Amino acid sequence: MKDVYITRIAKFLPNEPIDNEQMEEKLGIINGKNSKARRIVLRNNQIKTRYYAIDADGNITHNNAQLTKEAIELLCDDTFTTKDIELLSCGTSSPDQILPSHASMVHGFLKNGNLEVNSPSGACCSGMNALKYGFLAIKAGQVSNAVCTGSERTSTWMKSDIFETEVEHLKELEDNPILAFNKEFLRWMLSDGSGAVLLESEPKGIALKIEWMEGYSYAFEMETCMYAGGDKLENGHLKPWSEYPAEEWANKSLFAMKQDVKLLGENILGKGVDSLKMAMNKHHITTADIDYYLPHISSYYFKENLYEELKGQGVEIPWEKWFMNLSKVGNVGAASIFVMLEELVSSGQLKKGDKILLHVPESARFSYSYAYLTVC
After folding, report:
1. CA–CA dist 84, 67 (Å, integer)
2. What range(s) does the Beta-ketoacyl synthase-like N-terminal domain occupy (predicted)?
């Protein structure tokens, strides 16, 4: 089995950063009224700026595949071009269409010759699953390099016109809020962007060796928490869009991303630390073996609670080991861990032998992914 190294890393965040007061201008006002939930959500998540693939005139500047292509091209130079890529593995929560696959569309924009493509589905863990596919392919000797990405273009999913038809069909507005908090919650959380890494079987320059990767799912015992393309029924079952008449797709805003906030708050941290302990125990590491802890969290609301959960379950990680950039770039879903790692590498503070733990939760139906890296 071959060793696997991250030898290059890049990110692409579109256009200018958007502050909290510009958000509703970009995404639109629903039913002619400013959101009451926006300030509550922003106060809790403490995100100050984020990025949208929308220009100053409200025009869409990039789709998801184009955002991904931009990050990949930033990996390349005269010594390694897009034509040298042997495997392309691209994860996202927000593909531009159901078919063709996201990686196929990215490949179409790259126009770089024949290669293998892989498109893991899912939410935030899809980026880590894309990374793991490349990791295993190189480890098994199938390829000598792979480009793995995480990306999101959710701003257009959050624009007001997605919800307007549903608002028009609500009958008792006093008893039924204009937009359920579960649906509006994510409007003020998500950001657009992409990140990419080059994996190779030999270290070059400042490289990060991937020691191991692990993934865990709790779907066997947990109902759906975050979803798009369906509606959650009172019994917890997720009814897919394909089982609704076409006229109901807009009436129920079936393609909007939604979050069961109560289920999220009750379970996301406990399951996360439980799975973290399993990964650490399997690979015989302790918190003393971690120099940098990069947890992907959707909101700073969870930061203090995550620390307390870690402490409560006996795996306390001191604050000085934490590295996050949520407040500056927003929640970029599958791209977040790539964007976070790129900033850490670019900071110049890493030294040979440092150990980095990546921790990525996915609330869709409670999945968790981990990677443990060594600075070479």
Report:
1. 20
2. 119-202
pLDDT at residue 175 in the model? 44
- Residue count (the chain): 376
**What distance in Å separates the CA atoms of residue 194 and residue 333, rounded to the nearest whole number?**
9
246 Ramachandran zone, left/alpha/beta (phi>0; psi -120 to 50): alpha
pLDDT digits 0-9 by tens, 85-130: 999 999 999 999 999 999 999 999 999 999 999 999 999 999 999 9
Nearest to 155 by CA among 10, 324, 331: 331
What distance in Å separates the CA atoms of residue 258 and residue 190, rounded to the nearest whole number? 12
Q: How far apart are CA 310 and CA 97, in angstroms?
A: 38
Which residue is listed with tokens 């406990």? Answer: 270
Rounded Cα gap, residues 19 and 177, in angstroms: 26
CB-CB neighbours of 24 under 10 Å: 16
Whether the ω angle into residue 100 lies within 30 degrees of 0, i.e. cis, is: yes
Spatial distance between the Cα atoms of 208 and 199, rounded to a whole number of angstroms: 9
DSSP labels, 153-208: --GGGSSTHHHHHHHHH-S-TTTS-SS-HHHHGGGGTB--EEEEEEEESS--SS-E
Pairing of strands 193-200, 145-152: antiparallel
| Cα–Cα distance measured from residue 279 to residue 371, given in angstroms and rounded to the nearest whole number | 9
Residue 64 near residue 96 (C-beta atoms within 8 A): yes
Per the DSSP assignment, residues forming a β-bridge with 145 are 200
Amino acid at 208: L
Tokens of 308: 């307390």
pLDDT at 171 over 50: no
Q: Which of 190, 154, 153 is nearest to 67 (CA)?
A: 153
Q: Model's pTM, two decimal places?
A: 0.93
Can you tell me which residue has the tokens 């070059």? 204
Could you give the CA distance from residue 155 to residue 162 in angstroms, rounded to a whole number? 11
CB 256 within 8 A of CB 190: no
DSSP 46-103: ---EE--SB-TTS-B---HHHHHHHHHHHH--SSS-GGG--EEEEEESS-SSSSS-HH
- Kindly give the pairing relationship between strand 292-295 and strand 355-362: parallel
Task: Catalogue all structural domains in the chain, each as residue range(s) with its CATH number.
Answer: 5-208 (3.40.47.10), 212-375 (3.40.47.10)
